[in-house]
Amino acid sequence: GIQVEQSPPDLILQEGANSTLRCNFSDSVNNLQWFHQNPWGQLINLFYIPSGTKQNGRLSATTVATERYSLLYISSSQTTDSGVYFCAVPPAGNNRKLIWGLGTSLAVNP
Amino acid sequence: KAGVTQTPRYLIKTRGQQVTLSCSPISGHRSVSWYQQTPGQGLQFLFEYFSETQRNKGNFPGRFSGRQFSNSRSEMNVSTLELGDSALYLCASSLEGRYNEQFFGPGTRLTVL
Question: Which residues contact A10 (CB under 8 A, 6 or more apart)?
């Protein structure tokens, strides 16, 4: 089945720094979601981005479906950005379940 | 519009017991999926329901079961609990359709002693 790999696994930033998180997937997909999981476990939708680029405030994401990767950019990081960032994709031919990467754990220090 | 709700938020059970978790999807969403999150295995798909029918199932033993009601609310049940069932159980809802973006509830944290 499809494999999802995220890098880096852990990241520590000083407040105000920028960062790029990467998600590689092993097969073609027709959608991709990025999530932020806060310290209480809530998964917050960041982007639904099967291809192209989207921006939402200090966050933006780019998916290059033909090369099987997606990038999440965080600019001017804040302590509230801390948590785990996941990307998830559906397996081929089944868009009703998600296969997850192991996440990038981000800590933003003041 | 209210988000996905899950009850209870926290549960403590002992081995051998059974447990039922509940999920109410976003109004108008008819697809409900369940995921298990553990530190060792990450997020794993359990099953997905639509119109009271299970459409997809992950690789979990038969002790894990679920159902969906006519109002799209869903329950999952775990029987004969094992220590390894301790996890965060997350429910997601989505509109049926081509793009199927999933939205998650706050989760139920189950501890098995």
Answer: A104, A105, A107
- Please measure the distance between the N-terminal and C-terminal CA atoms of chain B and give it in whole angstroms: 37
Per-residue pLDDT for B8 more than 70? Answer: yes
Separation between Cα atoms, residue A6 and residue A22, nearest integer Å = 6
Contact residues, chain B, for A83 at CB < 8 Å: none
What band does B67 get if pLDDT is binned at 50, 70 and 90? very high
Query: Å from B65 to nearest chain A CA?
Result: 16
Question: What does R_g of chain A's alpha carbons equal in angstroms?
Answer: 13
Amino acid of residue A94: N
Looking at beta carbons, which residues of chain A come within 8 Å of B31?
96
CA–CA distances in Å: residue B21 to residues A12, B74, B88: 35, 8, 11
The CA–CA distances, whole Å, from A94 to A27, A51, B21, B111 equal 13, 18, 25, 32
Strand partners, A74: A19, A59
3-state SS class at A5? strand
Candidates B4, B33, B36, B43: best to mutate against A (most CBs of A within 10 A) is B43
Residue range B40-52: average pLDDT?
92
Task: Please choose, from the candidates B105, B107, B90, B110, the residue with its C-alpha nearest in 3D space to the C-alpha of residue B34.
Answer: B90
